Amino acid sequence: DFGRSSELAFVVEPSDDIAVQEQPLVLYCQVEGIQPITITWRKNGVMIVDSENAFMLANGSLYVSRFQRVRGDGSSDEGEYDCMAQNHYGLLVSRKAKIQAATMSDFHIHPQNAVVEEGGVARFQCQIHGLPEPVILWHKNSMPVNTDNERYTLLPKGVLQITGLKAEDSGIFHCVATNIANVKFSREARLTVSGSHSTVYKDPMILVGPENLTLTVHQTAVLECIATGNPRPIVSWSRLDGRPIGVEGIQVLGTGNLMISDLTVQHSGIYVCAANKPGTRVRRTAQGSLVVQAPAEFVQHPQSISRPVGTTAIFTCVAQGEPPPQITWLRNGQILETSDHIKLKNNNSTLSIYGINQADEAIYQCLAENSAGSTQASARLTVLWADGLPSPPQGVRAETVSATTIQVSWEKPLQNTKEIIGYVLHIRKAADPVEMEYQEAVSKSTFQQLVTDLEPSTSYSFYIKAYTSRGASKASEVTVVSTLGEVPAMPSLFIKVINSTTVQATWEPSIKLGQHEGFKLYYRKVHLSQYTGPVLLASNITAYNITHLDASVVYEVKLLAYNQHGDGNSTVRFVSLRETVERTAVLNPPCDCMKDEQNNKTSTTGIIIGIHIGVTCIIFCILFLMFGYRGRLLMCKNVQEQLSTPQIPRSQRSATGLVLNGATRRDRDERDLNGKQLDMNELERLFPASPSQEQQKGITLAHSPSTPHDETQISTLPLDEFSIIEEQPDPLPKNPHGSSTAAPAPDHGPANEG
């Protein structure tokens, strides 16, 4: 159980610094952990030996008595320094501290004379390089400029802006640059304010826009924008990507300069300065980019772990920064080299150590570095080893059984075998990484294992470990053996008859066939023992035509795939061409051209006559149905002339008979008008025949029993007086009043007057 205080770790690491020429320099390094701890220093990767100029203090810090940028021998105290700490458990390396000499160059931009009209804008600039960044102040007439005047704006990069110029602003200006290395003065420049404020209209114009800046988080950015015009333009800022600039840490300097304090990565972007004429859409724009970098910092630190021998140790180290940092791993201060059992994944964020042993016990460090800075984190791997564990299993052998099976055998360890509870066989393709390894458990009384489901023609590595309740033994020696090659599988075969002498064999090569060099095709007549073939076909061919066959016999076709290990199983198909020949004879009989022509003519004439007869029958059926329902089936020939009242004197005729006749005529007329059909039932109802007269085959018309006459004369009509006619209905004339009237019955002859 290792607590944090027992871990070797840095409490204070050296930091970047700027040293002054001929001045002393101290680089701090403080470490905690289990003693004894040894601290050493390196510069640019080379060990520093104590000397009169540079030596280590008792607290582990490095002291440089007189820092020099360039020494007499050409060496320099500038460079990258790091501190190393080591104890019994491992070695640590601190972050790299960049040490530079303080310098200051001459001014490469001096202020220039300017003549500006009253009410205008004046701008002076001077630039100088130095380490650290020089502080630039402005003097007017040899006196510091009054920064309390809101019309005067001093920008960090050596710019002086004066707005709303007045005559009192005229004078001589120069700047003073100061840092720990030196103090320097620029040349002087005269400002002349001329005339009175002009009222002439001038379009807005941006004199100076923002420049591109690259800064680090927590610094301050100043984006300059100075505009002129009449009337005075309004200056506004926006981001090109449309995101809001925000308000926190944002300040406007002077009449339009944008200052962003305590920069973050989110402040990166392109900023647009716009000069707008008041009350109009007239505007001028300028833009500049701001890049904010962030030093590397850890999101997840690696954690110290303890693992038994033979297991896997995994360290995770996740860092962020802008630009994204590069991650490097160290083992006891040296760059970690990957191997079969040491792997780096996920852009070096994950370190995996497979099958650990005592040699892997060390301190592992994760270094994250980008252009803005570097950082480090460490973790210790402790390999657990219990006394009395078995020694490695002996005599590991592997023998190939088949293309997919290998038998592995071994002998029990030489020492400490009483507590063994079983063995574990570790299996891996020789070409695969260690993380692809898998295991099979074996009982303690078993000293061989049949490994199945392997791939043909593939090399495999095997080793054994003996396990107890307190841990595992060291791994046995590794043995490597290859499986046998495998012949291809059976191809799918299809036979298609092309004609009476040709068939086509087609097949579909499958991935399951395995590696195959080609195909062999055989065929024969089934009653023969000898095959024709083999026909050797390349592996990319999938069809072959077998020609010059005998249509009267059945053929056997056989196909197989082969490779360097031999021939695979064959696929057999049988095919007969006899049915094809017979079917061809039926479908294509011998041609008698003259007879066929006559038969064709006769057949055509018969078809035309049959069509005409069928159409005629259909027309007659339709006409019969149409007129049959509308015409009368039976009509009495001369019914009006034959049917009359009984034979009585004219003078004695009663009105009853007239009424009867009139009623009969009206009934008929009404039936005609209503389009009713007279069928046999109606005739029987109207003219019932008496039983005595049925022998005479006549029809008797009797008066209604309600007639007042006591004597009734009966007229008998023989059947030959009737005939069946079809009556065509006449259109009914309209009366003058528009109502229908019944047409008078036609006079077919004199009525019988008795």
TrEMBL record:
InterPro entries: FN3_dom, FN3_sf, Ig-like_dom, Ig-like_dom_sf, Ig-like_fold, Ig_I-set, Ig_sub, Ig_sub2
GO BP, sorted A to Z: cell-cell adhesion
GO cellular component: membrane
Transmembrane residue ranges: 607-627
Membrane topology term: Single-pass membrane protein
Extent of the signal sequence: none
Polar residues composition-biased segments: 644-655, 690-707
Span of domain Fibronectin type-III: 392-486, 487-583
Family annotation (CDD domains): FN3
Residue ranges occupied by any Ig-like domain in the UniProt entry: 8-100, 105-192, 204-287, 295-382
Family: Belongs to the immunoglobulin superfamily. DCC family.
Record protein name field: Immunoglobulin superfamily DCC subclass member 3
Organism in which the protein naturally occurs: Malurus elegans
